[in-house]
Amino acid sequence: MSAPKPGDELVFLPLGGSGEIGMNLNAYGYGPPDARKWIIVDIGVTFGREDTTPGIDLILPDPAYLEEERENIIAIVLTHAHEDHIGALGWLWPRLKVPVYATPFTAALVREKLREAGLLEKVPLTEIPLKGQVTLGPFKIDFVTLTHSIPEPNGLAIRTPLGLIWHTGDWKIDPDPLIGETTDEAKVRAMADEGVLAMVCDSTNVFVEGTAGSEAEVREKLTQVIKGCTGRVAVTAFASNVARVETALFAARAAGRTPCLVGRSMHRIYNAAKGVGMLQDAPQVIDEDEAGGLPPENVLFLCTGSQGEPRAALSRIARGEHRNVSLRAGDTVIFSSRVIPGNEQAIHDLQNTFVEKGVELITADDEHLIHVSGHPARDELKQMYQWARPRIAVPVHGEPRHIREHVKLAEALQVPETIAPKNGDLIRLAPGPVSVIDEVPSGRLYVDGNTIVETEDEAIRDRKRLAAEGAVNVAFALSAKNAIVAGPNVTVRGLTMADEEDFELALEDLERTAQAAFAKLNHADREDDDAIEGSVVRAVRKAAERLWKKRPLVDVTVLRL
Predict the structure, then answer these.
(1) Which CATH number does the domain 9-210+373-454 belong to among 3.10.290.10, 3.90.1720.10, 3.60.15.10, 2.40.50.140?
(2) E strands, 8-89, in order
(3) 2, 100, 119, 464: least buried by Cβ within 10 Å?
(4) DSSP line for 116-167
(5) From CA 259, how far away is CA 242, in angstroms rounded?
């Protein structure tokens, strides 16, 4: 490694994942402030919610700052294949157009994403072997084996002329992960002996005491639970947790059941895992149409939809809308997953639908250890700090409360320097003490159908307003002399009253209000559709607020004859 030059700096820039759990996008820069070279670590998504972002499925980190630095970006490096780490690649790569590096399983899933986006032949994707190395400009990167809830989770040992950064990615310390190797403790300890400048570390479970638990424990418990079930059994879990998928397959065999995969992502992950040599000893799965011919006690469905996603397989089964799979009284649904914050109501609604059908539910609780987290609890965090001995603690992958608590933990462990980053903070790691030296543009982009839009896009604002306040449409026709010859006709959406007669009177009130607003316009304004619309909108919205205590979206249609 060459010596640093005068003016060189090593900086860290989170643009996603610092202040929230999900949507990870981190960048490291090296060099003088006016000529830094950059690498990007992970490029993920988070998911929309109908109550806050109606009609939005995916939310992306805004890469505007990095777009301006595109000529200085060397590569995108991916730690693992969870959506909050790779999901934005197909959407944002056209804005960055830099090579991508990933280990085999992650690369397999990335290829599928790029194929769907029509980018497979355009993106330079380099597959790095497990425990491999790559040199990207001033960054020499070692891929370090960790354990998580997906195959091939990697931490990154990033060496620069100004010091070694230990970027953990997502991790836990699982003594028996079932698929893949255990955490490479020796490698982390060797890095500590070399000297770790900064550890950029997962904060998800910083409030959880003890350890996260092992996949081996889940296999034992889930097998016991499935053996005790009668009727059909459906297990739902995160498809990306291949060890959990394998557990469900083995548990099915132990209980004399034939497994059937249900849901697109379950098939996609299963095929990717098989393609890189995993699941070789697992029982063969059957198609949905074959499963229908088996006795109920001889089938197990492994389904997507553990978070209550309305279009996922399990929700369609609950609603009776799935073409091949149905569940009824006496059958069992097993939720081998955690509740992601924000999904509570969707999951409860899904579970209640099954209960109303007489379907038995088994969830991950103290009685049934059928799920463990993929993120480090406090004892594991303490262990990692003891192994790595960093000079600087940089907590990421957490909401502000997680990051602040992680800072307190690091300080209690006598880490010399700490910092609590938020998205957009440009943090100098070296030389000198760690500090925020600038704040760059950061934010979110929405995927609306097949289009990326800004968070303040007019359509998004209107959609939120429609959901919360309702809508009113006013339509009338004007003669050549600007006289009303038909209307105003008023229709409303999303507004109602307990009494139908009162509702009709309210519509008449709005029609009179619209007519009065038009009558007040002078001759010139009646020639101008924009002037008509402005006057009528203001008057009708004020009247609607009086009638419903809401401020609906008001649309005016003028037909000139």
Answers:
(1) 3.60.15.10
(2) 9-16, 25-31, 37-43, 46-47, 58-61, 73-77
(3) 2
(4) HTT-TTTS-EEEPPTT-EEEETTEEEEEEE-B-SSSS-EEEEEEETTEEEEE
(5) 15
Where b means 16+ CB within 10 Å and e means fewer, 141-156 reads bbbbbbbbbbbbbbbb
All CATH 3.60.15.10 domain ranges of the chain, comma separated, are: 9-210+373-454
CA distances from 219 to 156, 178, 364 (A): 29, 9, 13
What is the mean pLDDT of the segment spanning 533-537? 92
* Residue from 371, 335, 364, 80 nearest 215 by CA: 371
Model confidence at 19, pLDDT cuts 50, 70, 90, reads very high
Sign of the CA dihedral with 34 first, then 35, 39, and 43 last? positive
Give residue 41's identity as a one-letter amino acid code. V
Orientation of helix 104-116 relative to helix 264-275, angle to 10°: 130
Domain with CATH 3.10.20.580 in the chain: 470-560
The pair phi, psi for residue 86, each rounded to 5°, is -130, -10
Mean pLDDT of 387-406: 97
Instruction: Please give the pLDDT value at position 366.
Output: 56
Give the chain's end-to-end CA distance (angstroms, integer): 78
Classify 368 as helix, strand or coil. coil
Hey, what amino acid is at 12? F
- Three-state secondary structure readout of 243-287: HHHHHHHHHHHHCCCEEEEECHHHHHHHHHHHHCCCCCCCCCCEC
Mean pLDDT (the chain, rounded): 93
CATH number of the domain located at residue range(s) 470-560 in this protein: 3.10.20.580
Average pLDDT over residues 235-249: 96
215-363 folds as Rossmann fold (3.40.50)
Residue found under tokens 């989770």: 153
